[in-house]
Design brief:
Layout lengths: L1 E6 L19 E3 L23 E10 L6 H23 L2 E9 L3 H6 L7 E4 L2 E2 L5 E4 L1 H7 L4 E7 L2 E3 L4 H13 L15 H14 L1
Parallel strand pairs: 2-3, 3-4
Antiparallel strand pairs: 1-4, 3-5, 5-6, 7-8, 8-9
Helix pairs in contact: 1-4, 3-5
């Protein structure tokens, strides 16, 4: 299940209300090179402001938010990070779409090419290049077995929750050097840890 949250970082109309055309901004995916006019520079409008806004899509994927402290704290840190840098994003004309995606089945894991819980992606790219995991007590209690959740390595230190600086750096990389973020594999298969989690959930419910 996906919960999409649109974080409004700037005014509703183009030119921040200065030209008075009243046309809505055109949302362009950040990864596209081309920039289009906001729509008010049509011949019948004639203001020619050329104002556009870019879209930054952040996916937060998780197995559980009811018990798993790693998922809960990652969600909180992500939201705090976005709040702290929203003025910078606003001044650069970026709108953030935050998708909260609950991976509640193997089918969902396959659909989203889910590697580990929790996961943060910016414009489709994972914020870290390699998957590190360690045992998660809460998810183990939830499914009735041993389960690993994601660890985060940043500047040579390993964390069970992503530091704010790590999230912010990933966002700025997506804007200015998107090629620096890791590409997703073309040969995805569901990790054994994720298969084990859903198998244990199924056995527990039977």
């Amino acid at each position: 299940m996906t919960n999409k949250i649109k974080l409004n970082l700037s005014e509703d109309n183009c030119c921040e209300g200065n030209c008075g055309c009243g046309e809505q901004k055109t949302l362009k995916p950040l990864m596209e090179d081309s920039r289009e006019d906001c729509g008010c520079a049509k011949e019948d409008k004639g203001c020619g402001c050329g104002h556009t806004i870019n879209q930054l899509v952040i996916d937060f994927l998780f197995l559980d938010l009811t018990q798993c402290l790693r998922c809960q704290n990652t969600e909180s840190t992500l939201e705090t990070s976005l709040e702290e840098i929203k003025a910078v994003l606003q001044s650069a004309d970026y709108e953030v779409i935050l998708n909260k995606i609950h991976i509640n089945s193997l089918e969902e894991a396959i659909k989203y090419e889910f590697e580990s819980s929790p996961t943060i992606r910016v414009n489709g790219k994972d914020v870290i290049s390699k998957t590190l995991e360690s045992s998660c007590q809460e998810c183990g209690d939830l499914c009735g077995g041993e389960v690993d959740c994601r660890d985060w390595e940043f500047q040579g230190v390993r964390y069970t929750e992503p530091p704010k600086a790590m999230i912010m750096n990933a966002i700025f990389k997506a804007i200015y050097v998107p090629e620096s973020l890791p590409e997703r594999s073309n040969n995805y298969s569901v990790p054994n840890n994720i298969i084990h989690f859903f198998d244990q959930i199924k056995n527990k419910n039977n």
